[in-house]
Amino acid sequence: MKIYKKSFASDNNAIVHPGIMDALQKANDCHVLSYGDDPFTQSAINRFKEVFGEEIEVFFVYNGTGANITGLAAALMPYQAVICTESAHIYVDECGAAERFIGCRLIPVPSGDGKLYPEQIRPLLHVLGEQHHSQPGVISITQSTEVGTVYRIEELKALTEFAHSNNLLVHMDGARIANAAAYLGTSLKALTLDAGIDILSFGGTKNGLMFGEAVVFFNRKLAHNYKYIRKQGMQLASKMRYIAVQFDALLENQLWLENAKRANAMAALLASEVGKIPGIRITHPVEANGVFAEMPKAAAEKLMEKYFFYPWNPEKNEYRWMTSFDMDEEDIMEFAETVRSVMKHL
User: Fold this and answer.
1) Using an 8 Å Cβ cutoff, are 207 and 199 in contact?
2) Residue 183 in 3-state DSSP?
3) How many CA atoms does the CB half-sphere of 260 hold within 13 Å?
C-alpha cells in the first residue's frame, strides 16, 4: 500500500497531534486500575464537565461507530426507529450496525445540504401510536454534516424543540463538532446542551487523537444503564486511561479549537484555489474542513496517482477532499497546482 505525505481522503488519515502523543506518554509510566477506575479518566471527565457543565454523564469508547450505536442503544427500544439523512454515517458507513446491535429501523430522509429540518420529519410521525409500524424515537443529526455544512444554533433549537414536543430525542453525531464550533465561533456547549441535544457522540480521532471517542449524555436519565450497554457493545476499554488522557489534552487550553481552526482554514484555502480552475465546480458551501467538487473522471484518476481521495457521487463525478490540522498552506497550494496541471493537460 502506498504511503502519502499528505492525503485528502479523510482527516482520519492525519498524524496524531504531538500534544496528544505527549499525554499518552505521560500516562504510560505507572500502574493504575483498569476500566476507568483511574485518575486519568476522572481528570478527563472533570474536563468535559468544565466544557459542558456539571450536569452531564460522559463515557469513553473506542471509535465513532461504537459511540453512535451504543449511545443510540441507550435511547431506543428495538421496535423504535431513528430518523436521519440519507447520507448519515449511521446509515451509509456503519455496515448496518444500528439494525443489528439495537434492532431498530433507520428511516433515511433525502437532504441536499446534509441537514434535517422539522418540515421533513413531520410527515413521518403519522405512524406514532400505530402498532403495525416502527415508532420514531430519535432524530440523529451530524455536526458538521457529511457534506461539510454546519447547523446554526437556531436550526438546532428549532429541531430539538420540534423533536421534544413530539416525544422524540435528538442524537448528534459530533465526529467533527469541533470544526462546526470553530466555523461558527461558538462554544461546544452552545451547540449541544444549550441547543437541546440529548446525546452527543463527541469526536476525537478526526481532530488529533490516536483513537477514541466519547458519548456525552445531556439527558442524564438515558445514561442510567449505559455502562452495561457499553460493555455488551464491546466498547469498554480495559486500559481506558489511554483514551481518556487524550481527551484531557484535547480539551485543555482549547487544543480542539486550534486544530479545528487550522483544518477549516485549509479547506477554505483549498476551495478558493481550486474554485478558480476551469472545469472544477464546488458543489457545497465550504463551512468546515471538507471540499466537495465535480471534475472530469479522467482528471480525478490522474490526480489520484499522486494524492488519495474518495469519490462522493460517482454518477456526478463528484469528489470529496478533506483537510486536517496537520496541513499547511504549502500542502494546499501544491495540491491545487497539481489539480490545475491535470485539468490543463486533459
Assistant:
1) no
2) helix
3) 28
Distance CA 145, CA 289 (A): 11
**b/e burial code for range 185-223 (CB count within 10 A of at least 16 → b):** eeebeebbbbbbbbbbbbbbbbbbbbebbbbbbbbeebb
Q: What is the value of pTM for the model shown?
A: 0.97
Q: Which CATH architecture has domain 255-344?
A: Alpha-Beta Complex (3.90)
Can you tell me the mean pLDDT for 232-258? 98
287-343 pLDDT tens trace:
999 999 999 999 999 999 999 999 999 999 999 999 999 999 999 999 999 999 999
Q: Give the residue from 98, 105, 106, 107 showing the smallest Cα distance to 73.
A: 98
Architecture of domain 18-253: 3-Layer(aba) Sandwich (3.40)
The full DSSP string for 280-332 is -EE-S---SSEEEEE--HHHHHHHTTTS--EEEEGGGTEEEEE--TT--HHHH
**Closest by Cα among 224, 225, 160 to 193:** 160
Which amino acid is present at 3?
Answer: I
Pinpoint the residues of the chain covered by CATH 3.40.640.10: 18-253
Instruction: Evaluate whether 86 touches 112 at the Cβ level (below 8 Å).
Output: no
Q: Where are the beta strands (DSSP E) in 110-258?
A: 135-142, 169-174, 199-202, 213-217
Q: CB of 71 within 8 A of CB of 201? A: yes
